[in-house]
Write a structure and sequence with these properties.
422 residues, mainly alpha, 82% helix, Growth Hormone, Chain: A
Amino acid sequence: MSVHNKSVYSWAFYDWANSAFATTVLAGFFPIFFKEFWSIGTDAAVSTFRLGAANSAASLIIVVLAPILGAMADAGGSRKRWLMVFALMGIVMTGALYFIGQGSWGVAIGIYAIAALGFSGANIFYDSLLVSVAPEDKLHFVSGLGFAMGYLGGGILFSFNVSLTLWPEFFGLNDATTAVRLSFICVALWWAVFSVPLLLFVKEPDRTSNQNNDSTIKRAVRQLKLTFSKIRQLRMVFLFLLGYWFYIDGVDTVIRMAVDYGLSLGFDSNVLIVALLVTQFVGFPSAIVFGKLGEKTGAKPGIFICIGVYLAITVWAVFIDEVYEFYVMAIAVGLVQGGVQALSRSLYAQIIPKRMAGEFFGFYNMLGKFAAVIGPVLMGWTGLIFGNPRVSILSLAILFIIGALLLSKVNVEQGQAAAKSV
């Protein structure tokens, strides 16, 4: 394996590492365990609101910090260092979920919010390293490879954790509750171990500033002001970010709230867990396929396909009644989830100045997380107001429509030319 390939696969392996949190904790066991263990005896609508509020709180913090952190990482040449700081935060807090007792919903949701903050914060710096490891003509493929590795790695560990909960006695455990708690420890260890290749084999990009007489924070703040100005000048970047803000809101909300939605409809938790596994393993090949599609046709057509499927899913979810329908929906989500994430990331990487990737991806992640502030709360409040979870899911459709309309205004070639002139 060449040094270049080693850096590409080491970068992609971080997605393999942290996707354990996204699958087992974020989308899988935490929503179920929060409802059935930490919020035992609480009305379903109230626990849904609490979960949405926790997701929104963690996202709101990232909204505030993301641009500053990205600028600091670029100015100080420390993207990997900050990635590991936030990853360690997520790893430690994920492991801490093991020790929280039944009924302690306040402690559980606080620890979870900090873990989610670590997960999201580390992704700012992980995304910004894409332009360092991938050549221009391979951005779509490498971005898709990262998400594909994430779906596979996250799916493998999630399968093991599900096995723990289904057959706890076989693994020497007392019951399924103990198995779920142990799964949080497994996620922390998996995340830590598979982060090592990135730490060892991905080169730290050069800093963007040579002004060593100022502190990194001062340089970052100064650079952040400049970036604000440049985003206003780079019209295609601005249009893309605005469109991304809307459609990724729907995507992230589906990821975070799907299990809770299924529970609210009365589906058994084991059914929902199997559906999540289906999504993971369908997502692995589809992310690679969409990466290849991006190389051949460009990213925009692939993103439009994904948005269209999500829009159909959002409308269809209102009417589902049978378990098989939920499985079909899970397959449909798996087909497009990795594609929309991977192609959005690589399209954005094409139209930004490469030497300022950290701070520009700070804005990228800021908007993504700001959308996630609105989405879960929107679902939670809609469910409370109408007393019907089916109405809440329909509120996401407008976000996909607005996002697609704004994306249609983005001219990639103009964006690339403008970025090179900065």
